[in-house]
Backbone:
């Protein structure tokens, strides 16, 4: 085995609380010009972070499965910690330090990847693979928390909007090691910086997000912006996915499992059709979990493994785009099986 063989050997996840039904939002529904837009067709259920639950709490609970299967020392002794939190517990710094402390870690590397968005797990795998292959350590932990559904989108005036019913909360942690047991075969990430300004937070009356004021913040969607995001997402995810397939010498229709982020049902259908895959080979938990943002890929991967949808030797492709289309990434793994 060469030093450059790096594997995603396991993933575990956590969904907070009981499922929140669509009826919860129906009782608050207000007139909204975007209510009938395809982007905001609500899932049947989603989960909400508890009022006093932090992103660090969520990551700790998500890591429990890894600790149970691999031992506490494997996680606490990891050399690298890579994190992404949708809504950081503190605005001035990421969650890496608190998460490291909670998991008993003293890693040489702690990195917070805020720009990864819904593709943060793919970006985390890319960074972990590069660092481990360069000799920076033997083990990396990639931790993702999505915690804005029960906080930002459940604010009294925001939950009246169509956008509020779509997100769901959850967390997941992946374990990456120097080994050839479940190798990362290829990764493609692309930055489209020209689209970075198209996702905005809005207030009425307008203000900077950090200033005090009477209005609650929400995502500033318009029909024009939605049209652009749909076009970008429909194009970017297949592009990065096919780039990885080409790199590993595989046709997309021969993939054993596709795991993507899940903003809405339209994207899920369009992506699997573009990659010529049937629904049974594309993990879809949208109606159970809603849009899990960056946590969507690892949570869905954990579920697919737990449900026996992947066998040792299968090729898994993970793909996503972020925000309004400013970043996209895909990664392929030859699954080696989960430790008992």
Residues:
């Amino acid at each position: 085995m060469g030093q450059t063989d790096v594997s995603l050997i396991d993933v575990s996840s956590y969904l907070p609380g009981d499922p929140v039904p669509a009826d919860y939002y129906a009782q608050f529904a207000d007139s909204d010009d975007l209510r009938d837009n395809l982007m905001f067709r609500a899932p049947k259920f989603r989960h909400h972070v508890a009022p006093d639950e932090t992103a660090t709490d969520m990551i700790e609970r998500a890591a429990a499965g890894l600790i149970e299967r691999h031992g506490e020392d494997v996680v606490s002794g990891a050399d690298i910690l890579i994190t992404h939190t949708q809504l950081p517990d503190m605005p001035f710094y990421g969650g890496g330090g608190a998460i490291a402390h909670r998991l008993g870690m003293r890693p040489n590397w702690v990195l917070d990847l805020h720009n990864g968005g819904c593709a943060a797990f793919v970006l985390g795998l890319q960074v972990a693979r590069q660092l481990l292959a360069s000799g920076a350590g033997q083990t990396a932990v990639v931790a993702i928390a999505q915690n804005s559904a029960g906080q930002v989108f459940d604010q009294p005036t925001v939950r009246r909007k169509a956008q509020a019913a779509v997100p769901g909360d959850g967390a997941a942690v992946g374990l990456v090691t120097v080994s050839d047991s479940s190798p990362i075969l290829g990764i493609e990430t692309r930055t489209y910086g020209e689209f970075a300004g198209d996702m905005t937070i809005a207030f009425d009356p307008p203000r900077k997000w950090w200033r005090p004021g009477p209005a609650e913040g929400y995502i500033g969607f318009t029909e024009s912006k939605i049209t652009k995001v749909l076009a970008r997402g429909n194009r970017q995810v297949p592009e990065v996915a096919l780039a990885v397939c080409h790199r590993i010498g595989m046709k997309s229709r021969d993939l054993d499992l596709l795991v993507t982020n899940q903003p809405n049902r339209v994207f899920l259908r369009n992506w699997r059709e573009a990659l010529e895959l049937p629904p049974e080979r594309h993990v879809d938990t949208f109606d159970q979990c809603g849009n899990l943002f960056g946590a969507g890929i690892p949570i869905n991967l954990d579920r697919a493994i737990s449900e026996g949808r992947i066998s040792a030797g299968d090729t898994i492709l993970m793909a996503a785009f972020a925000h309004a289309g400013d970043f996209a990434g895909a990664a392929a793994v030859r699954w080696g099986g989960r430790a008992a």
